[in-house]
């Protein structure tokens, strides 16, 4: 999905003063990471380690895994395409609504896809499928599935691979509910992003946690040097300072709940409840595309038109909470438009 994603500021000639279209933490500590990279620019004089051994080791320690179970990727997006490639032609179930890259990656590699509402995850029969794809927390609706339920599904369908996108794991106060702790099921594959929580989406950095056999197979099918030297340095710095660099989740969720609560006061809107920094809203009249264009044109505010998420219609848009000042600007702008 090259077009239609969040943070698509390049599509507009107007200056974007406030960007609610991305789920990146507004209070991430990217400035400290940038300053660290400024002092380590010499790393670009050499090729990056194609195996990302130093970073893989640090991630493995963080995840209580062996390095052989870690694959560093150029963002979570590379992870999805590598996994879809490995399972080319498979029957796959994609929980919806969901990040479009799951479907795009599967279609590119000739999967036979079935789409199942994420609310049915605990009740669905997954025996016909080689792989099941979902986000936890799920993008765009912020659905949370307890880790115990995911592990239960893995054990019930041992011949099915469950691919769970944990890009937003750190952006909810319910982390303990969804975090996979203890022994990971052999048919469970976790994808992670280091760019959302740490507010460095331009770096493109993520990783996969899976069995050593799956990681080895993925490694054989990828292009060399897909993760550049600066990204690897950033990743090592993040892992060395992980908890300190995480955003203040109380502040983040406080602003999300504030924005949800205030928008519900508008009778022309419906905002879905969320325990993450992002949430869905729906217009009772009009289209999200029209609202998006007016907000950009009249107020310099960018939101995410969510109508291109499978299962959602033209009335849906997604918001990533920002600072209190920015949130108030958005509330005032929407109230002026949606009278």
UniProtKB/TrEMBL annotation:
SUPFAM superfamilies: PLP-dependent transferases (SSF53383). Its EC number is 2.6.1.-. Coiled coil: none annotated. CDD domains: AAT_like. The keyword Cytoplasm does not apply. Pfam families: Aminotran_1_2. GO terms for molecular function: lyase activity; pyridoxal phosphate binding; transaminase activity. Its cofactor is pyridoxal 5'-phosphate. Residues 44-326 form the Aminotransferase class I/classII large domain. Keywords: Aminotransferase, Lyase, Pyridoxal phosphate, Transferase. Belongs to the class-I pyridoxal-phosphate-dependent aminotransferase family. PANTHER family: HISTIDINOL-PHOSPHATE AMINOTRANSFERASE-RELATED (PTHR42885), THREONINE-PHOSPHATE DECARBOXYLASE (PTHR42885:SF1). This is Aminotransferase. The lineage of its organism: Bacteria, Pseudomonadati, Bacteroidota, Bacteroidia, Bacteroidales.
